[in-house]
Amino acid sequence: MDIQNTCAIVTGGGSGLGAATARHLTAQGAKVGVLDFNADGAKEVAAEIGGLALHVNVADEAEVEAAFKEFIDWAGEAPRIVVSCAGVGTAARVVNREGELSIDKFRRTIDVNLVGTYIVMSNAIRAMASLEPLGRDGERGVVINTSSVAYQDGQLGQAAYAASKGGVASLCLPVARETARSGIRIMAIAPGLFATAMAAGLPEEVQKGIEANIPFPPRFGDAEDYALLVEQIVRNKMLNGSTIRLDGAVRLPPR
Fold it and tell me: SS3 of 212, please?
């Protein structure tokens, strides 16, 4: 799919992977909606790229539906590209040392990372189905969700996070088969260790220790690396129904 003059929505677009993706798609000629729970972050990125900022809780069905309608009114067309980067990182043992359970944290993580992704994807599919098909293959759009290498390499304390991201990865194939008749592709990216705000908050010696375990390149991933893969997925129509690890060959140790 050609990105030039295409409409796109990026959730979690106010920072990190989402912000880099919003900037990159804009540079490729797309008209971009920046959705984020952090309203200030969304406004800042949207102002920079000439996009539309929308304050949205992706786990709220009504808010997501309203955001899609507002974006379509603004852009004049439904998005052909939807990238879900919104999510929360949760670290908690199933039962901690004090014997306390973490069920509330598990539920919230699933609600935002998995259910939120599903809500956004559902609205994206409905919106894309109304578009005219493009080219010889009749493509209407592509949805790119964000999983994590934790879905395969989940570390101690990552039960909730790994489960939520495993769910995101598992959505790809069955949904891609469902939307094939409409010419809509479904993909996921599973990032490894990236230079996001979460990593930046770690002590320098901890960051260096983590980097030493990444085979090549021996560094945290840049958000632009993620954005570049988004572009490549959009352009390559044979990428469908799969989750791609973007990790520099790293495999996370147990803890």
Answer: coil
